[in-house]
Design goal:
Length: 392
């Protein structure tokens, strides 16, 4: 065997999301792109805010001496200061530039956090459904991902979380608003989770960290708010990206925000700084750092996603699907009318409708649809959803 055995074994467990995206490409080649209704990949279809385009022009035109030179691993000081001001406003906890580490998206940020926190065999707990790559990120750093069930509406089950904590638990990783469900964890549940982790940390004699992956924080509807873990628990770290709120996923720019009240704050920041460099990122993309410093707080037109949510939810309701209307993100996660969600997704493909089986997110019996697609794609799906439900 010429490659690592563990990596080869991971091929079979690799993202069903990407596999379904590739299936969509195959069907489009056969039937034509306009005939295939692709709800697989959460690739934002709204343009970035106009302020982003202007900031990009200004950053590209900057000719200051040394502008393309090396920078601190943790990012430009002026960018970190601008991000900290936004975090302070959004989270209700005062942060300054030194509390921020700029990262290569949320994925790069999470890997840096796990490299910093995990010893071999440490466990990271995450509620299900969960983003499939979390398992790979934890495994990258010799940790183990353990899943915790949620309630029927996908809200946190604190009793299940308490049962899941073991002497090996090092962190709890949440994702709110959640991919794939769109659920937002309430302020009360996060406060209770903070109390639980404080109690368990005392019992076990080791700190259990609370991590939050938040790329969808600003994609929320009906006046919903996303409570902050930073106000619920001092041993907390937020990781996020600008992929969704600025519609720039290909730019791979995000940040890590560390609660300044964390007991081992100095060591955590030093560890993150070293991890960013030694994992091979070295630093977050320089041009995008200069851009986001200029547009901190901007977001896409969320009203457009709200309209798309109403379109797809109306179709699913008419067809008779059982689902929770998502308060955030651009995903909806209906129940499959079959126990086998993979088989049901295959039945949808016969209607040239593509979704992702819930098993990809640790939640068999459901399937995920994105609605960050053109309105006409959603509208064209109506007859197909009606027909497939009639079969079952």
């Amino acid at each position: 065997m010429t490659i690592a055995k563990e990596l080869k074994a991971s091929f079979e467990r690799s993202s069903l999301i990407r596999q379904m995206f590739e299936k969509a490409a195959q069907l489009k080649a056969v039937h034509g792109p306009d005939k295939v209704l692709d709800f697989t990949l959460g690739n934002p279809n709204l343009p970035p805010p106009a302020a982003f385009d202007e900031a990009l022009k200004q950053a590209a035109a900057d000719r200051r001496p040394g502008i393309h030179g090396y920078m601190p691993n943790d990012g430009y000081p002026e960018t970190r200061a601008a991000v900290a001001a936004t975090v302070t406003r959004d989270h209700g906890v005062t942060l300054t530039g030194p509390d921020i580490i700029m990262s290569c998206g949320a994925a790069g940020g999470l890997n840096a956090v796990f490299r910093t926190l995990l010893d071999p065999g440490d466990e990271v707990l995450t509620p299900v459904p969960y983003f499939v790559d979390y398992r790979f990120y934890v495994n990258n750093h010799q940790g183990k991902l353990a899943t915790v069930p949620t309630r029927p509406d996908f809200s946190l089950d604190l009793a299940a979380m308490a049962r899941a904590v073991t002497p090996q638990t090092k962190a709890v990783l949440i994702n709110s608003p959640n991919n794939p469900t769109g659920q937002i964890y309430s302020r009360e549940s996060l406060a209770a989770l903070g109390d639980l982790l404080r109690e368990k940390s005392r019992e076990l004699g080791r700190t259990i960290y609370l991590l939050s992956d938040e790329p969808y924080r600003k994609i929320v509807f009906d006046g919903a708010e996303v409570p902050s873990i930073l106000t619920s628990y001092k041993e907390s770290i937020v990781v996020t990206s600008y992929s969704k709120d600025l519609s720039i996923p290909g730019e791979r720019i995000g940040y890590i925000a560390v609660n300044p009240g964390a007991a081992c704050y100095v060591d955590i920041m030093a560890g993150l700084n070293l991890a960013i460099r030694t994992l091979g990122f070295v630093n977050a993309p320089a041009l995008m750092q200069r851009v986001v410093a200029r547009v901190a707080g901007q977001t896409v037109d969320v009203k457009a996603y709200a309209r798309k949510r109403e379109l797809i939810c109306a179709i699913l309701e008419e067809a008779g699907f059982d689902f929770v209307k998502p308060p955030g993100t651009f995903y909806v996660f209906p129940k499959s009318p079959l126990g086998d969600d993979v088989k049901f997704v295959q039945a949808l493909q016969e209607e040239l409708i593509l979704g992702v089986p819930g098993v990809a997110f640790g939640a068999p019996g459901h399937f995920r649809l994105v609605f960050c697609v053109a309105d006409e794609v959603i509208q064209k799906s109506r007859e197909g959803f009606l027909r497939v439900m009639e079969k079952f």
